[in-house]
Amino acid sequence: MKNMSISSRTAIVPFLFLFIVQAQGQCDRWQQRVKYTMSVDLDVKTHRFTGEATLAYTNNSPDTLREVFFHLYFNAFRPGSEMDVRSRTIADPDARVGDRIAELTPDQMGDLRTERMLQDGKPTTVVEMGTVMKVVLAKPLLPRKTTTLTYGFKGQVPIQIRRSGRDNAEGVAYSMSQWYPKLAEYDARGWHAYPYVGREYYGVWGDFDVTLKLDSAFVIAATGVLQNPTAIGHGYATGKKPLKRPDGGTLYWHFVAKDVHDFAWAADKDYVHTTEQVPDGPLLHFFRKDVAELEPAWKELPGYMVRSFQFMDKHFGKYPWPQYSFVQGGDGGMEYPMLTLITGKRRVGSLVGVSVHESVHSWYYGVLASNEGRFAWMDEGFTEYASGEVMQELFPSPQDPHAGANMGYQNLVKSGNHEPPSIHADHFKTNSAYGTTAYSFGELFVDQLATVIGDKTLHAGMLRYFATCKFKHPEPIDFERVMEKQSGLELDWYFDEWINTTRTLDYAIQSVLQVNDSLVITLERKGDQLMPVDVRITFRDGRETNHHIPLSLMRGSKPQGSEPYAFTTLAAWQWTDPRYTFSVPGSILGLERVMLDPAQKMADSDRENDAVELPEGGGGLVKP
Ligand SMILES: [Zn+2]
């Protein structure tokens, strides 16, 4: 183990050098690095487990670290925990949790603690704080140095309450996520030792080498690639080598995962395990309970998932890992590196839908991995956006796949529970505001950007974002700068006000007048949010013209060819003006309709004033 840390220390020097040379553009900040080696023994009678761990931690920050933090997530499943109290006191409790944690008996609770925590062989001081643990180091960890922590850990798998645990509603024995002492992330904003209250995660990039000792009747699905399939079988390919299981009732499953920020697994005695290869992509694994009613939908799933991965590779960036597993478990759908836990009793449409969403997380949660505490919308929202595009490919529909997100956002605004998306995910006052903000607002934020920079520019920008920021924990500023570079436009106003405020958007057609041979159209900004405006004019003879009014703050406009339709670009709308007037040749008698936002992508809170239909025979002044 010592040798390992020395070699990783020497390897880091050329890496850092490269890093500094290439330090331009976005996502060029330093990243911490971890290497876990864990061996774990789970007793399926008591549901208790013990582990031994060696953790090599490399400090790539410019700071000297005197302490490090771990997450002990299983301690959330104890009466009185932050998750328990929050779940019972929030205005709109999550029905999956409610007061279930408060009612747990000692043998049903979760438990996780470490013991014998040594740093390079010297004792450390451990301070437990519920779901977080502070380790005061024996010796400060200097910049660009690696230190090795060795420790034992012990835990009890709780009955399944939220995401992880034993005996889920569909009878899956073990859904093992957030199960081991997990090093917290340290970045340019400092430590992120978030307690486990309900929301999602942020982890350190690294490599996992995990050996799981378990009763041989169980089949395991895990993050990573199984290293010893010939000693395991259970549906794992052994190539040309014969299966050679050891004697006795125990198997040692050895998994390795590289360049990931978490490790999850699941185990059950009744898993049916099948695989499907994505051409020029990962091997997909499928694990479901051996129950007849599941078979029809799960039989159709692999074909859809191959197409989903191929679409994502082409339109959003190349999936980097060798495999991905769809695993029945958990309490709905939850993403992990190279693996998802999904409930499996679903019709095929729902099964495909949840599988697309969770596997698409591989791009935003898995590879890009924005801090989900601070920027949940960059994970869920971007995942929803890309999933919508995938679902449109798999199940083509005349409806805009992102229209639902806009509606969800509008309903949140109307509810009065709207909060700025920049709030920490656990600190929203309601579950519904968090959910709609992370999922619907995040999707809308991306989709609506098409009206600003152009549809084609947006799609090219999504590929560029992935290429630029993969494995770099991007923040909003990184996405903004990538999109600014892709479009050549200034987007500060868009990012500042949509993310940090609850201002709303409302543009309106104020009047349409006949002046000599021209139609004079006046628009009005009634809301606080700023946007460029697209206008479509439809004449009775069937002609249709599109006009784009850039916002002055953009310092330019989307180019011709960036939208699926042709348009004329008008003078920019000076942002301080509440009104904007322009004219086009034509007669009001020949005019049928003037409408704003023909693509219907803007989050305009009052659509009633976005279009005027002219009565046959026309009229003079039209005031909607
Ligand atoms: Zn999600």
Task: Looking at this protein, list some descriptive labels.
624 residues; alpha+beta; eight-stranded mixed beta sheet; five-stranded mixed beta sheet; 26% helix; elongated; disordered N terminus; binds zinc ion
Rounded to an integer, what's the Rg over CA atoms?
27 Å
Provide mean pLDDT, rounded.
94
Structural class: alpha+beta
Give helix % range: 25-40%
Taken from the alpha-carbon principal axes, the silhouette is elongated
Which cofactor or ligand species appear?
Answer: zinc ion
Largest beta sheet: strand ordering: 5-4-8-2-1-14-17-16
Largest sheet: 8 strands, mixed
The number of helical segments is 10
Extended strand count: 31
Strand content: 25-35%
Q: Measure the end-to-end span.
A: 75 Å
Low-confidence runs (pLDDT<50, min 5 residues)? 1-24
How does this model look, in words?
With 624 residues, this protein is of the alpha+beta class. The protein is 26% helix and 30% strand. The chain contains ten helices and 31 strands. The strands form seven sheets. The chain has an eight-stranded mixed β-sheet, with helices on one face. The chain is elongated. Residues 1-24 have low confidence and may be disordered. The structure holds zinc ion.
